[in-house]
Amino acid sequence: MINLFNAHIASLSIHKVGNKSRNEAIFLSAQPYKLDDEITPLLKEFFLKPFREKEENYFQFQHDSDLEFHSLYQLVSEMFQAPEQIHDISKKITQHLFDQSMHPHIKSGEVYIAYLENLQIDNEKVDAIGIFKSELKQEFLQFTEGDHQLDALLQEGVNLNRLDKGALIFNTKMEEGYKILTVDSNRYDTRYWLESFLGVDAFADENFYTKKYLKFCQDFAKDVVLPAEDKKQEVMFMNRAVNHFAKNDTFEETAFVNEVIDNPDLIPEFRHYKSEKAPKYSIEDLTTFPIANTAVTAARKKMKNTIVLDTNIQIKLDFINPESAERFVEKGWDEERQMYYYLVYFNKEQKS
């Protein structure tokens, strides 16, 4: 979990890259940008706001052979080891970004490379390197006052409410390729930012495994539990799955299967589904791992607890008291109407 509230921009370099395939230029500033009390808080919010609002999906630098051959990893490591060389290294990082700007869809833009201090990640205070890019420009009016006339001048600039691309590289887990957060508001060139420039892969930690396993469970519920039983049992299976994760610090697959799968006939189906689908979720050999509470909370927020019927009626199940759905909601078949029905027991209607 990260805390960016007390983050401080210790140094900032601003450059510009064009599209190399269109013979657009690169512009490298000779000196670091001189920050002042007026613009610093605005830039800090511009850079960091997207990361506060985004789910924490961590990445790490990766290379098929060895990280020593990863260009950006080496430059970032140099910067952490020699902060006095930040501006010179920022030029090399910008050149690396320019060299990847070969696809015709890639837009030119300003590149901001910041050395950040006093960030917190996993309850540890660390420095970080921020690499940000603004691409899309917006038109705005600038007004000037003459002697007897107010004149309007149409100009173009960067909207400080929208960061196009960004990466926060935390000075932790260096041997694994650092822990990295990234945002990309423009979806037309994701390979360029994530793969070509950053060269990252998902960071395989407890947060990653918890999310992946719960996503696997969600798909199992949809693909296997729903066809074999009904929508109610699909919803209740996921509720039991998330509750199991929520009350345990460590995941152990055998205990999970025995507690969460009510129907014994579905246990071999679960194991078969995992053997077939595991590579998709990167959980092939995963049977035990520490559970990340933040990932469980995020998964619970996304869970759908409503049965939607084709008769324009919806039944919302209470995840806080799941035993109510088991005891007081029954599904049946009406021969006369040739329709399914849900029977709901209650003592009195509650005031909304």
Please render the helix and strand layout as text:
Blueprint: E1 2-3, E2 8-17, E3 26-27, H1 40-53, E4 59-61, H2 71-81, H3 86-99, E5 109-121, E6 124-134, E7 137-145, E8 150-158, E9 165-170, E10 179-184, H4 190-198, E11 200-202, H5 206-228, H6 231-246, E12 250-252, H7 253-260, H8 266-281, E13 288-290, H9 293-302, E14 306-308, E15 314-316, H10 323-328, E16 329-334, E17 339-344
Antiparallel strand pairs: 1-5, 2-3, 2-5, 4-11, 5-6, 6-9, 7-8, 9-10, 12-13, 14-15, 16-17
Helix pairs in contact: 2-3, 5-6, 5-8, 5-9, 6-9
Describe the sheet with the most strands: 7 strands, antiparallel
Overall pLDDT: 90
> Helix count?
10
User: What's the count of strands?
Assistant: 17
What is the H-and-E element order? Answer: EEEHEHHEEEEEEHEHHEHHEHEEHEE
- The domain count comes to 2
**Strand composition percent:** 25-35%
Ends: how far apart? 36 Å
- Helix coverage percent: 25-40%
Shape by Cα distribution: elongated
What class do helices, strands and sheet pairing give? alpha+beta
**What Rg is obtained from the alpha carbons, in whole angstroms?**
26 Å
Low-confidence stretches: none
Give an overview of the whole structure.
By secondary structure, the protein is α+β, with helices and mostly antiparallel strands. The protein folds into two domains: 2-203, no CATH class; 207-344, no CATH class. The chain has helices spanning 40-53, 71-81, 86-99, 190-198, 206-228, 231-246, 253-260, 266-281, 293-302, 323-328; strands at residues 2-3, 8-17, 26-27, 59-61, 109-121, 124-134, 137-145, 150-158, 165-170, 179-184, 200-202, 250-252, 288-290, 306-308, 314-316, 329-334, 339-344. Strands 1, 2, 3, 5, 6, 9 and 10 form a seven-stranded antiparallel beta sheet that branches. A hairpin with an 8-residue loop joins strand 2 (8-17) and strand 3. Helix 6 packs antiparallel against helix 9 (293-302). The chain is elongated.
